[in-house]
Amino acid sequence: MHYPTPISRLIDGFMKLPGIGPKTASRLAFHVLDMNEEDVLSFAKSLADAKRELTYCSHCHYITDTDPCRICNDTTRDAAVVCIVQESKDVMAMEKMQEYSGLYHVLHGAISPMDGIGPEDVKIPELLKRLQNDEIQEVIIATNPTIEGEATAMYISRMVKPTGIKVTRIAHGLPVGGDLEYADEVTLSKAIEGRREL
Amino acid sequence: MYIENLTLRGFRNYSEVSLTFEPAVNVIIGSNAQGKTNIMEAIYVLAMGKSHRTHRDKEMIGWESSFAHVKGNIHRRTGPTVLDVIFTPKGKTVKVNELEQQKLSQYIGTLNVVMFAPEDLNLVKGGPAERRRFIDMEIGQASPVYLHDLASYNRVLKQRNQFLKDWQGSRRDPGALLDVLNEQLAAQAAAVVKRRFEFIQMLQGWAEEIHRGISRGKEQLEINYVPSADVSYGMDLSTLKEAYEQAFQTKRDQEMRRGTTLSGPHREDLLLYVNGRNVQTYGSQGQQRTTALSLKLAEIELIRDQIGEYPVLLLDDVLSELDNHRQSHLLNTIQGKVQTFVTTTSVDGIQHETLSKASIFEVSDGQLVEVK
């Protein structure tokens, strides 16, 4: 199919987004043509603004429009606990929970020699520096339960433990509200491994 | 369990064929290149959802067909089940009792098969990788957790090998990350090796007895797992883990020099001894063949231990390779217990009551006719 240049450029643009193939991209592009001009301009502006105005917090490396970020600036939060996550979107997931009141540290990745990512390529040196200055008493490692996430957790734990700061790892196992019989064997075996005394 | 009915549509050289089988022995006779092994492949496909010969599902779709369909009525201890495997150029569909299964892992397990083909001699003669594959497949059939542990092990191994390669020849200290990778790899190695030791222990029990039977009490088979660290059967996970960490520590300089991991389940092997002598190196053709056969027949018993009934046995072109005594021992073993499919170019010269009672099918150019 031969589209006029502006629309094929738009389609190409949408296709650069994750999870969007050629069909969805052209559906979105044609939808944009039907939208009123005001909405299109405000959408384009928010795309550009998001890129231009957002930076990373110099303390925790979470995306922010103010530095330090709102979470780091919030004096009601518990500055003695830091939760370490791989990505900014993990902070959003944790915040949705509304149960955690400590601070965060975003690594922006996990250690993976196969991808050429070593400890210095994620924000681990920054974390260690932060631990020297701040009044932090516990770090909760919430990296993903993958091989790379585990390696990162183990590495951080080795680095932090000698400082006397408490290091914990989030649990993994059965989802809440799920039936035991629907859990797959691997999840079940991990749940058994991580059982605790009542 | 046994297969009552098998229907093939557009499968390799069969445009449409429907067969009813005996719960006992079914012999498929035909000249070369007529489609004997295709029948075996279809049964294997019905059990595993994939071929034993090819990774490309499309190959199984016949030349003049747009899809390949294998359907089977399986009789299990618990009752009858209908299985369907359909390949189209777009992908495959698997069904249990007409119900489509999203995951292949949910499909596998309804029909269990053990296949013995001439290539299985490689189990004895071939390299260590063949034997590791055998162990991994056998344990994996019954344990998804093992497959997960093995996949995790391989993933960490890749990461560690890349790390060692990056540091190869460097005189600087690789630091804590190597310790982390060692710990992580040792933990996965421990989980894998613990299951392997347990499996070998069970396999040894059955294979030894079967081998004694086939060799008329003259040969004693011994199976030894050869680990790459100071570990043995019966150790718990933490002891195994420590032993592998120790092995990584000991070989550290060597590994840094070569840029690869030198210990772990990926470097381990089975040694097979007959009367105290390594049959892989010193055994005769016949002894090697008997050993492979003993391992396969032990597999049948292991599956029965696990699921409470015998699997279906597929003997592809192997009966003719065994001498009279071994043939009759094999046929005695399966007699009345195991539904067996045998392919051969001729049954002349094989005198055994099991065979004289068997159903015989003749294959000729994509047509199958029951002749007895």
TrEMBL record, chain A:
Gene3D superfamilies in UniProt: 3.30.60.80, 3.40.1360.10, 6.10.250.240, RecR Domain 1 (1.10.8.420)
GO biological process terms held by the UniProt record: DNA recombination; DNA repair
Cited Pfam families: RecR_C, RecR_HhH, RecR_ZnF, Toprim_4
Stored SMART domains: TOPRIM (SM00493)
Zinc listed as a keyword: yes
HAMAP family recorded: RecR
Function field: May play a role in DNA repair. It seems to be involved in an RecBC-independent recombinational process of DNA repair. It may act with RecF and RecO.
Protein name (Swiss-Prot/TrEMBL): Recombination protein RecR
Name of the gene: recR
UniProtKB/TrEMBL annotation, chain B:
A GO BP entry: double-strand break repair
Assigned keywords, A-Z: ATP-binding, Cytoplasm, DNA damage, DNA repair, DNA replication, DNA-binding, Nucleotide-binding, SOS response
GO cellular component, one term: cytoplasm
MF terms in GO: ATP binding; single-stranded DNA binding
Sequence ranges assigned to domain RecF/RecN/SMC N-terminal in this UniProt record: 2-347
InterPro entries from the UniProt entry: DNA-binding_RecF, DNA-binding_RecF_CS, P-loop_NTPase, RecF/RecN/SMC_N, RecF_2
This protein's record includes keyword Glycosyltransferase: no
CDD domains for this protein: ABC_RecF
Localization in the cell: Cytoplasm
Binding site for ATP: 30-37
PANTHER family xref list: DNA REPLICATION AND REPAIR PROTEIN RECF
Function, as annotated: The RecF protein is involved in DNA metabolism; it is required for DNA replication and normal SOS inducibility. RecF binds preferentially to single-stranded, linear DNA. It also seems to bind ATP.
HAMAP family given in the database record: RecF
Family: Belongs to the RecF family.
Name this protein carries in UniProt: DNA replication and repair protein RecF
Species the sequence originates in: Salsuginibacillus halophilus
Gene: recF
